[in-house]
Structure formats: C-alpha cells, structure tokens
Amino acid sequence: MNKCLNSKEIIMLCRVYPPHRGGVEMVAEQHAQFFFKSGYNVKIICMDPAQKTNYMQRVGKYNETIYSFKPTLKIQSVLLSFLYFFFSISQVIKSQRDAIIEIHHPSPLDSLILCISKIFVNRRSIIVFHANIYGKNKILEFISNIAINLSFKICKYVIFTSDNLRVNSELKYRIKEKSISISIANPYAKVTNMVRKNIQNKNIFKILFIGRLVPYKGLKYLIEALKGINNIELNIFGNGSEINILKKEIEKNSLEKKINFCAELSEENKKRMLENADCLVLPSINEAEAFGIVQLEALSHGLPVINTYLQTGVPEVSIHMISGLTVPPSDSLAIKLAIESLKNNEELYQQLSEGALSRAKEFASEKIYESFNRFVLNLEK
User: Fold this and answer.
1) N or C terminus: which one in the chain shows less Cβ crowding within 10 Å?
2) Within a 13 Å sphere around the CA of 332, how many CA atoms are in the beta-carbon half?
3) Stretch among 22-36, 152-166, 194-208, 299-313 having the lowest mean pLDDT
4) Which of 129, 103, 132, 133 is CA-nearest to residue 184?
C-alpha cells in the first residue's frame, strides 16, 4: 500500500528507535510495521543518543516517517530533550481528529507529553507497557509512577507483551477494563528445522548469554553456577556497566578458561554464536526483564533455554519442560542443576530442542499480526 494514499494516522512516541536495538525498540518497529499494514500513515518521534545534529528526519524500513532528536540530558536511562518535548506536543495537537497516539512505557517524559496534550486535544491513545522502572533512584521511580498513573486514566487501551505482566499490572494499577495482551513477534522470519542432538559426543557443552551486562540480568549467578562443572564453556555476547565487575567475579572463581566475552557485537557474529551454542541461559533476577526477546532467537535455532520464574513474560516465552527449563531467580545451584540436566541427559535435551522449534513458530509474525489487527479494528469502532 502506498503511504501517501493512507488517510489514517498513528503518532508513536518512543524513547529510542531502530537502528538502536533493544526490546522496546523492536516492539516499536513491529508496531510501525503492523499499523502500516493496517492502512495507517506512521509517524515516529524518538531520540537518538548517537545523533550529531539536534534534529533529523528520515524514512524507516516500513515507510514510517521518523523524527529524531539529540537528547540534551540523560538521568540514568531516561533521556530528555526540550525540542523532542515541544515537537511531540505540537504534532499531537496538529494531528487528525481520529489519529492514534502510542507511547512506550517506561518513559516518564512520554507519559507527561500524553497528559499535557490531552488538555488541548482529545485523541485516542495507547500505552505499550514494557516494564516498570525497577531499581532506579527513588525520585525517578516516584515521578514515573505519577506520570504513568495519570496517562493510564486518559488512555483507551494498555497493551502488554505477556499475560503474566498484564495480570500483575491489572492488580497494581486497576486497569483491567482497558488492558490487552499482544505478544512480540519472532524477529526471525524463518525458524530452522534442525533439532539439536548427539550432545554426548561433544567435548565441550557450550552455553550462551546474550544481553546487556547490567545487574538485573543476573549474570553473577550464572557465573557462580559454572563452578564444579567440567567440559563447559560460557560465551557472553553483550556489553554494559557490569563488565569489569563480572570479570573480577570470573577471576575470583578461577573460571577464566571457561568463560569468554565476545568483543565483536555484530548481528552476523550473534547468529554464528547461536548456531554453535548448545543452550541459552537467561538468568534475570527481577521484573525489569519483561519478555526476553533473545529467547525467541534461541528457540528459532532449536536451542533449549534456561530462564527464571518471574512475574513477566519470561517464563511464558520458553516454557518449563516444553522448550527449556525454568528455575528460581538468584539461585546459582538451580542454574547449575539445570545446566547439568541438559548436558548429561541426551533424551531430555533432544525433547526440549524439538519443543524449542515448535514454540518459536507460535510467535510467527503472521500470527501476532492477526491479534494486532483485531485489536486495531476494535480500536477504530
């Protein structure tokens, strides 16, 4: 469909947007694609920390118009820009009467923009709820809670990426009448049909971690779990504030020969590591981990996943004894036992590898779009 022929309009406010990669960015881009397929002109207003100019305009891969701003201030992970703030409000005010406004939480600034815009115009608005601000400073958390509670009152729907997150948030925010679950689509267009097997014949059992190296990812518990396990290798694909702390932890436990950090963080190298791994471990310890998209990447390669039982979408993506093993958070011994179960039980490993491929297909883009389109049609009524 040619973009200029579309009459319906969606304005999406997003803290950052691809080519930056992360869970929120991936969901925002998927929604841009889905709205375009549903006949909407899509406008993205975002910030870009790597941008050299204060303002840029470009066209995205799904014909979305992207307005990006250089942030003027950063408070922990919260980006701020006065230009972004005033431009977003002006775009909402100038939008069509039947336009839809979508914001992605956590972003206190976007929630504030939504609330201020409501004073001037009445637009249908959607909040895509990814996670709470967790473990940040108390002032930021307080401001965020005020902003999100106000925006919940004025929005039409709140989209959650998992049933777990939706149910727990409904109780907390009392928004049952306007909440809906729409999962994240599998970023891999094609799921492999290769079932992993014959692991007993391998000299080294290869574990993979993919993600930011930050405290809530729980990497220190994975590192501790490797003590006492022979013929094992952990490859860590990612970067972040904890890298030096983790290296000291590895040295303290004399695990230098078992653990490698990947310095080349390219998509091509990530794919190669997924193809060569035997399992993925996602040892996250709290609800800051809302979904774990990396699990979909692993499942698509037939990799069993070891994840943690959180009140989010994490254990819904890879299901215990179906496509992997789920253990309590912050429990090194449980992770160790799960790794040993996959390493030493070939029958279990092959069963979970088959389950991983089947589970990955449940998140096919076509299936998720069907749910999304039904939601959009209902939204337009």
Assistant:
1) C
2) 11
3) 194-208
4) 129
Q: Which residues contact residue 220 at a Cβ distance below 8 angstroms, ignoring those fewer than 6 apart?
A: 245, 246, 249
Residue 67 region by backbone torsions, left for phi larger than 0, else alpha for psi between -120 and 50, else beta: beta
Q: Alpha helices of the chain — where are they, by DSSP H? A: 23-37, 82-94, 108-120, 138-154, 163-173, 219-225, 243-252, 267-276, 294-300, 314-317, 332-344, 346-361, 365-379
H/E segment holding residue 262: strand 259-262
165/130 Cα distance (integer angstroms): 9
**Nearest C-alpha neighbor of 18 from the set 73, 75, 59:** 59
Contact partners, residue 209, CB within 8 Å, separation at least 6? 217, 219, 222, 234, 235, 236, 237, 238, 280, 281, 282, 283
Token code pair at residue 22:
């992360």
pTM (predicted TM-score): 0.88
Q: What is the pLDDT of residues 317-359, one digit of tens each?
A: 999 999 999 999 999 999 999 999 999 999 999 999 999 999 9
Cα–Cα distance measured from residue 381 to residue 276, given in angstroms and rounded to the nearest whole number: 49
Query: Rounded to the nearest 5°, which phi and psi values hold at 378?
Result: -70, -35
User: Do residues 186 and 360 touch, judged by C-beta distance below 8 A?
Assistant: yes
Amino acid letter at 370?
A: E
Once rounded to an integer, what is the mean pLDDT over residues 123-139?
Answer: 79
pLDDT at 378 over 60: yes
Quickly count helices (H) and strands (E) in the chain. 13, 16
DSSP 39: T
Strand-pair partners of 12? 44, 102
Q: How far from chain centre, in Å, is Cα 306?
A: 17
Whether 213 and 238 have beta carbons less than 8 Å apart is answered as yes
pLDDT 10s digits, 171-207: 888 899 999 999 999 987 666 667 776 565 568 999 9
Q: How far is CA 136 from the centre of its chain?
A: 18
